[in-house]
């Protein structure tokens, strides 16, 4: 019996490479999108086959999708120098190309969204996948998810994984937690906006990767699942942990000061109140996030290595 074929976009990224690793270990024949030689080498080292291209190669995306049994779409253009609406338009085009290759097959297309685009609960409680969209730039990505779900009517088993703001672990030096470490080293202080007593959602990268594979196997068409591992950490606690890690003070700044430092998009991102319940993924998919917490990863785990690397690379210069 031949191995089931999986095509993964974003396969060389922080989350995608872990998804690739786990998929290969589970016996899948994995093909991963790669933009350069370094990505090719990484995928080969994981036991996957690299496919050279990017999200603009729509004909390639459709052909790879057509040949696959499962498509996992994790790639997203993170060039935030461009208007976010433009990035969402690029996402919609890529989703269209992938979905067209699966029309009429009922094969799974697992797409990626975020938990941060929904309105927070007014009482500070957790929100579920039915929560209304917030009036934020981040909320515009919901349009791409809705577009993906439109292909359910065309015989594609579309499922959406909504990742929290912070996906962390494995000494990742490119995510938002690492970005805050860089900011703290560069400015000599670890900051949070306002009182910092608002919570965000996060998930350990291995747990997130397993959720994609569970969704491909078990999720019904047209469903979204929050991929949160934890929802009770505050921004003040995060800033304090980072400050202790790099030995700088933690302090509050205003939203205006944050905008002057980071620009409007990152300020919006770092001020989002988001507690996304994972109950649906636990109950319907049997997902069990077991990875260490973000604060532990910062003070005792892999981000100790990340901070040392940043110091050696002169991140504070």
Automatic annotation (TrEMBL):
Molecular function via GO: aldehyde dehydrogenase (NAD+) activity
Entry GO terms, CC: cytoplasm
Highest taxon, organism lineage: Eukaryota
InterPro entries in UniProt: Epimerase_deHydtase, NAD(P)-bd_dom_sf, NAD(P)-dependent_oxidoreduct
Domain NAD-dependent epimerase/dehydratase: 6-226
Protein name: NAD-dependent epimerase/dehydratase domain-containing protein
Native organism: Aspergillus ochraceoroseus IBT 24754
